[in-house]
């Protein structure tokens, strides 16, 4: 079973020297990762911070970056954060978010999965 997955960020992490780092690896999440993230004081005071802490737990590498910590994930561009959130959901078999809409022409209802990855 594969437990680590490679990725290429759409924009890339820009370090303090202005270098761009795009390639990395993410591992499958464990129950412990999720529990630790939920108990993090930053998450307790701001629940929307959960994504940042959780991604910092499961990203094992960003090429050329010594340590992956929440402050690194915070500095990612929003396109890269959305990409990593989608990847996390896909590799951990979490149901992707959907949007419900009604076709204005035929009146038929549809649920469309939202995909935040950038392909191409």
Report on this structure.
- The chain has helices spanning 31-39, 41-45, 50-58, 70-74, 78-91, and strands spanning 4-14, 20-27, 59-62, 98-102, 109-113.
- With 120 residues, the chain is of the alpha+beta class.
- It has one domain (4-113).
- Strands 1-2-3 form a 3-stranded antiparallel sheet. Strands 4-5 form a two-stranded antiparallel sheet.
- The chain starts with a strand and ends in a 7-residue tail after the last strand.
- The mean pLDDT is 90.
Structural class: alpha+beta
Percent helix range: 25-40%
Number of strand segments = 5
Low-confidence stretches: none
Q: From N to C, what is the helix and strand string?
A: EEHHHEHHEE
Mean of residue pLDDT values: 90
State the shape. globular
Our count of domains comes out at 1
For the largest sheet, list the strands in their spatial order: 1-2-3
How would you summarize the topology of this molecule?
Layout: E1 4-14, E2 20-27, H1 31-39, H2 41-45, H3 50-58, E3 59-62, H4 70-74, H5 78-91, E4 98-102, E5 109-113
Antiparallel strand pairs: 1-2, 2-3, 4-5
Quickly describe the structure:
The protein is of the alpha+beta class. Helices cover 35% and strands 28% of the residues. The protein has 5 helices and 5 strands, in the order ββαααβααββ.
């Amino acid at each position: 079973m594969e437990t680590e997955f490679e990725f290429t960020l759409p924009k890339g992490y820009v370090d303090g020297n202005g270098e761009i780092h795009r390639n990395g690896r993410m591992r499958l999440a464990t129950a412990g990762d999720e529990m630790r993230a939920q108990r993090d004081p930053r998450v307790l005071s701001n629940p929307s911070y959960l994504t940042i802490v959780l991604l910092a737990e499961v990203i094992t590498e960003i090429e050329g970056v010594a340590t992956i910590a929440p402050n690194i994930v915070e500095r990612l561009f929003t396109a890269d954060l959305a990409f990593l959130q989608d990847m996390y959901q896909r590799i951990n078999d979490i149901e992707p978010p959907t949007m419900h809409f009604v076709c204005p022409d035929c009146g038929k209802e549809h649920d469309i999965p939202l995909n935040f990855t950038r392909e191409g």
